[in-house]
Amino acid sequence: MEKEQQTQSTVSQEQSQSESVDQQSYSYSHKLLNILLGAFVAAVVIVAALLCQARVQVMERDFLLEQQKLGQSWVENALESLGRWREKAIETINYVSQAEMFRLFIHDCEEACGSKIDLLQSQEVRLDEAIPYILLVNN
Question: What's the pTM value of the predicted model, to 2 decimals?
Fold first, then answer.
């Protein structure tokens, strides 16, 4: 009986040791699985954060390009408007300058001829209408 008890106690000790080893290996594999699962979740979160950051950068770049196009279009329109305004201003300046030169010419004609030329004094007269008088004075 004693041998049976010793055998049973040895068997129970072996079983408890194997259970202990099983629990330790289970505990170790469980910890390893938890660590791997945590690392996987962290990797997924990091990849998602990087993808979000890349998407934000693309959206920001697109927004800035759109703003640049809008600004460039505005500047081009402003330059075109300024160019038209400049042309009109030069046209007006030339008209006024020519009108003043025409008035000076009339004044010179009046002094040279000694009489007033009523047609040339009119402010509505055009230069092409005055050419015969100009030729008359120069001859």
Answer: 0.41
Give the tens place of pLDDT for each residue, 96-123: 667 777 777 777 776 766 554 554 455 5
Segments in 114-126 forming alpha helices (H): 118-121
* pLDDT tens-digit series, residues 36-74: 999 999 999 999 999 999 999 999 999 999 999 999 999
Q: What are phi and psi of 123, to 5 degrees?
A: -75, -15
What contacts 24+ positions apart, CB below 8 Å, involve 6-14? Answer: none
The alpha carbon torsion through 117, 120, 123, 128 (nearest 10 deg) reads: 170
Tokens in use for 86? 């400049």
- Measured CA to CA, the distance from residue 109 to residue 107 in angstroms comes to 5
Q: What are phi and psi of 125, to 5 degrees?
A: -70, 145
Q: Are 112 and 137 in contact (CB under 8 A)?
A: yes
